């Protein structure tokens, strides 16, 4: 792993039309090599597809906690793990959410939950479903956020939520919102990332921007890099598949908490054993993560 920093400089033209024009630039930095290396690690065969309740999922949980410690992220309420159990069919599962915490500099009693799920499909018919895009990409993006916060502490407090058992019906995020460690009333927003590392058209969807006026305002004014397009949709207001409850943001939506879900449309390797690290698109992935961080940084400036 190289030790150089991937520095992204975005010239924001007309970000907010009353005073941003031409001269202003924002810098969003994270280690691009680490971003890719985390995906490569978590989607390797040694994790056996990270199915909830298996040794592979346990290994992923341990890896995530070690990474958070290395990034100097504190546990939420004193411990990283939030254990839960549930039945799916005739099978009983034990799951574990991993929860990190960064205290806000000003609005510390208000929380933004940044989330991704670390579980996947496991092994089926002798084939490992490694889930590189789904959702090792979102997990690694949370690490990029943690690194960004070291130099750019957030205004609101942030919970980094690595949810388990998303593939089994959003079980981890559902348990979290039903058993919140901080009051649900203090959670102003969920930003969920699930499948953000590949798209042949260089398109990243943002579902949920209509759930709060602040989200709509930032979406309409933000200018991502020329190498990626952010599209609002898949929210029931267009003719596309409705993604409102398609991933862990759905658990927040059911509690009437504003959310934005960032993800790509399904590709040929979706939920197949070919969703491997070799098939992600590194440049698109880096641009997607920097765009999501950019979106967060503008939202974080506003009051909810």
From TrEMBL:
Pfam families: Peptidase_M28. Gene3D superfamilies: Zn peptidases. It comes from the Bacteria. GO terms for biological process: proteolysis. Residues 97-293 form the Peptidase M28 domain. GO terms for molecular function: metalloexopeptidase activity. This is M28 family peptidase. It comes from Bizionia myxarmorum.
């Amino acid at each position: 792993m190289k030790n150089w920093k991937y520095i992204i400089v975005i010239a924001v033209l007309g970000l907010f039309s009353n005073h941003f024009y031409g001269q202003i630039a924002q810098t969003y930095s994270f280690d691009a090599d680490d971003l890719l290396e985390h995906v490569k690690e978590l989607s390797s065969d040694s994790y056996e597809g990270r199915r909830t309740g298996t040794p592979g999922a346990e290994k992923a949980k341990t890896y995530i906690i070690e990474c958070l410690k290395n990034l100097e992220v504190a546990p939420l309420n004193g411990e990283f793990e939030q254990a839960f159990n549930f039945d799916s069919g005739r099978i009983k599962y034990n799951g574990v959410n991993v929860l990190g915490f960064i205290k806000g500099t000003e609005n510390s009693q208000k929380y933004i939950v940044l989330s991704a799920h670390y579980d996947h499909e496991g092994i089926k018919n002798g084939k490992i479903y490694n889930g590189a895009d789904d959702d090792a990409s979102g997990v690694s993006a949370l690490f990029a956020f943690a690194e960004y916060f070291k130099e750019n502490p957030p205004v609101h407090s942030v919970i980094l939520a690595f949810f388990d058992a998303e593939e089994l019906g959003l079980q981890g995020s559902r348990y979290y919102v039903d058993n919140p460690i901080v009051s649900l009333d203090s959670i102003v927003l969920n930003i969920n990332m699930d499948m953000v590392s590949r798209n042949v058209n260089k398109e990243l969807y943002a579902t949920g921007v209509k759930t709060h006026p602040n989200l709509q305002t930032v979406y309409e004014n933000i200018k991502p890099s020329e190498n990626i397009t952010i599209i609002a949709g898949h929210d029931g207001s267009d003719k596309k598949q409705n993604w409102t409850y398609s991933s862990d943001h759905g658990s927040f939506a059911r509690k009437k908490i504003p959310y934005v879900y960032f993800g790509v449309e399904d590709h040929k390797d979706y939920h197949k054993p070919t969703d491997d690290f070799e098939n992600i698109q590194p440049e698109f992935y880096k641009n997607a993560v920097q765009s999501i961080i950019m979106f967060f940084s503008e939202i974080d400036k506003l009051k909810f």
